[in-house]
Design goal:
elongated; 16 helices; mainly alpha; about 290 residues; Serine Threonine Protein Phosphatase 5, Tetratricopeptide repeat
């Protein structure tokens, strides 16, 4: 038997001996949840709560399962209840903050819960990272966001998300050399993800390092062929090289793979520019003696 199978059997045996064993019921629910068996997980959490309706950890776990099922308001209600029962329930603060931001658009309240999670558990790197995202995206507090991302990396130097976020924030500050260094760390930590190569490529292009940008963008497309923005960025680089036919091919590919992408107006403008440049090149060739 595998480890999870052994643990499942042990918890089931414990529950047979003591059907009121809240910890075993909740832990069995966690195993079901980790396996993707959300309904079975919820059933075990609900059994545990029938024994002890005021267990904050189980309330948090059930809320996570409800959120997974798309029952956002029910999940929020349970996280609030868990916090009312235990103001130091760190997972409830974090999960509530995460959901309020991502699913409800309540950034201010989300910040309060994330800061409370960090106050209780200062090395909670996930909370630092999400705090940085909200400070940057919703509050425009770029310096504070950068500090949060740096703190995230100090706590967990092997997680690529914080390097990616820090690279973006530094790029927004105009610190392109530093941004590039962090994007390279993303690639080192997650070499099979195209996002790091894409951001590295567009930053190199912003710096005028066109050859390097083309290499990174090609690598990004190889990893994520359906990323329309990467094709469009490669087209911009190709235009700067004067490779008009290649630019047009990349732009058409961008339109093909992501016809509903937000940047299609920009892609259309680039395509118009590329067609104009090709016409100019054709005219130059036709007028040569």
């Amino acid at each position: 038997l595998g480890r999870l199978d052994e643990e499942t059997t042990a918890y089931q045996d414990a529950i047979r001996l003591n059907p009121s064993d809240v910890d075993s019921l909740s832990n069995l629910g966690n195993i079901f949840f980790d396996r993707g068996q959300v309904d079975q997980a919820m059933a075990k959490y609900e059994e545990a709560l029938r024994v002890n309706p005021n267990d904050p950890e189980t309330l948090n776990n059930l809320a996570v399962a409800l959120e997974k099922k798309g029952l956002i308001d029910d999940a929020v209600m349970l996280w609030r209840r868990a916090i009312a029962l235990d103001a130091n329930c760190v997972p409830a603060h974090y999960n509530l903050g995460d959901t309020l931001f991502k699913k409800k658009g309540l950034s201010d309240e989300a910040l309060l819960h994330l800061k409370e999670a960090i106050r209780i558990k200062p090395d909670y790197w996930e909370a630092h990272n999400l705090l940085g995202i909200i400070l940057w995206e919703k509050k425009g507090e770029l310096d504070e966001a950068i500090s949060s991302f740096r703190r995230t990396i100090a706590i967990n130097p092997e997680h690529p998300d914080a390097y990616y976020n820090l690279g973006g924030a530094l790029r927004a500050k105009g610190k392109l050399d530093s941004a590039i260094a962090y994007y390279r760390e993303v690639i080192r930590l997650q070499p099979d993800w195209g996002g790091g190569q894409y951001q590295l490529g567009v930053t190199l292009l912003q710096m005028g390092l066109v050859d390097e940008a083309v290499r990174s963008l090609k690598e990004s497309i190889q990893l994520a062929p359906q990323h329309g923005d990467a094709h469009a960025a490669l087209a911009r680089a190709r235009l700067q090289e004067g490779a008009v036919d290649e630019a047009i091919a990349s732009l058409n590919e961008s339109l093909r793979v992501e016809p509903e992408a937000a940047d299609q107006n920009k892609v259309a403008e680039l395509l118009e520019e590329a067609e104009r440049r090709r016409l100019e090149q054709d005219q130059e060739l036709s007028t040569k003696p």
